[in-house]
Amino acid sequence: MSVSERYQLIQDEIKQVCKRVKRNPDDIEIIAVTKYVSNETAQEAIDAGVQHLGENRLEGFMEKYESIGQAANFHFIGTLQSRKVKDLIDYVDSIHSLDRKSLAKEINKRASREVSCFVQVNTSDEESKHGIKPEEVVPFIESLANYPNVKVVGLMTMAPLTDDEQYIRQCFRKLREVSDEVQRHQFSYAPCDQLSMGMSNDYQIAIEEGATHIRIGSKLVGKEV
Ligand SMILES: *Cc1c(COP(=O)(O)O)cnc(C)c1O
Fold first, then answer.
1. Which one of 22, 38, 168, 177 has the lowest number of neighbouring Cβ atoms within 10 Å?
2. Residue 119: pLDDT above 70?
3. Domain count, the chain
4. Which residue ranges does the record assign to the Alanine racemase N-terminal domain (predicted)?
5. 56 pocket-lining for ligand 1 (C-beta < 6 Å)
């Protein structure tokens, strides 16, 4: 199947899920995660109508950006080392992995405009996963008040790798609950009404639970390496 056919299929599935849960498919942004594929395949996604690309490493991010440039919005979805912020800050549309104050400080310092950031939350109890604990999200966001270039547009999470749909759903639901809690505080710099959750294997559940940004790699563009 071509990237274009897979994109069509995913869009059809999104429409079906949205119909079931009475959501508007236009409220869901598809980020094609291109970390496993070539520039050519990423370009195929763009040609098929994809508008958002996601990369989890600086090298891949720069490579895709240099190849595709203004034709897409670029999302950084991986762990971000503070010293690398300066290299991507001018090109990034949103950062989905804000997980510590020192990173917010660096983003604020290097950016010459407001940068959309998602706070990454560890909604499963796995020690290995990145992200901050649900109960620490509000105090964390409170601590960002003096970083005017950091705009907290939403929260991001990765569900655990499991076949247990109930557990996955619970993680997504948790993220939404935390986001509701943040919104009740009405921080001017943290509207926090967007949810980046759902990947190839679980985006349908994520949409049911309120995802606004789904990050799809293998199912959309495949896996070449
Ligand atoms: C790789 C990756 C994805 C996409 O994974 P697939 O299972 O291939 O869809 C989504 N989010 C993050 C943070 C990733 O690193």
1. 22
2. yes
3. 1
4. 14-222
5. yes
- Ligand 1 pocket test, candidate residues 34, 55, 57, 77, most atoms within 8 A of CB: 77
Q: CATH code at 129?
A: 3.20.20.10
Q: Which two tokens stand for residue 2?
A: 């071509």
pLDDT tens-digit series, residues 132-163: 999 999 999 999 999 999 999 999 999 998 99
**Among residues 219, 173, 176, 198, which one has the least CA distance to residue 17?**
198
Helix (H) or strand (E) segment spanning residue 4 = helix 3-21
| Structural domain of 172 | 3-221
Q: How far is CA 209 from CA 35, 173, 198, 213, in A?
A: 26, 6, 10, 12
**What's the gap in Å between 201 CA and the centre of ligand 1?**
9
pTM: 0.97
Probe ligand 1: pick from 3, 31, 33, max atoms within 8 Å of CB? 33
Q: Residue 224 corresponds to which tokens in the numbers above?
A: 């070449």
Per the listing, tokens 């034709």 go with 71
Phi, psi at 22, each rounded to 5°: 55, 55
